[in-house]
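Form 7-S
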Amino acid sequence: MSERFARKWETRRDDQPFTDRIKDAVKPPGPLKPRLDFAVRRIELQVQKLDQATDRFTQRDKAIFARIVDAYTKHDSARANVFANELAEVRKMERLIINARLALEQIVLRLRTVSELGDVVSTLGPAVGVLRSVRAGLVSVFPEAENELGEIGNMLSGIMIEAGQGSGMTLNFDTVNEDAAKILNEAATVAEQKIKDKFPELPPGMPSVASQTEKTTESF
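Output:
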């Protein structure tokens, strides 16, 4: 072991109090902004993955829709109904994914505008709430996102706690929950309109996919 390395090693171990070493092991040290930027990049990566999932579901939607039309033109109503039910399930999942994507996008926009410590606390509270709701909503549709969103939520919670300690601010949980609900509701409204604009309705006389989807859709 070189003298230089030994000196660095001993300095870190001897000069740093044991309690500080424990804190560093649990909570990564460092400035808040780079860690916040890192969390934002991880959220943006999840947005990209949701876009890819949406593209896959879109192709599946088109294929099922074509089968429904084919069965309908052949007057095979039983087969058409089976495909209509399948399409309703696909569109339910599409709505959940688009909803989640829009909600995460809103979080990214808010986090990108954070500047003061007080803004960090007031912004991260709703952001963490939205991430938890999105994570729960995607469990059955996009399970690979569950762990990643959970880790991002924990990271943002840690940053929020540190920022609160540094600024002396405390969270108003009523306001936090209200803001989170507002973000989710806005995302749901836009997602609903995107589904209507993006996908065609079934021919007249066929069961309404929209009505079937509404019966089975679970909100965040």
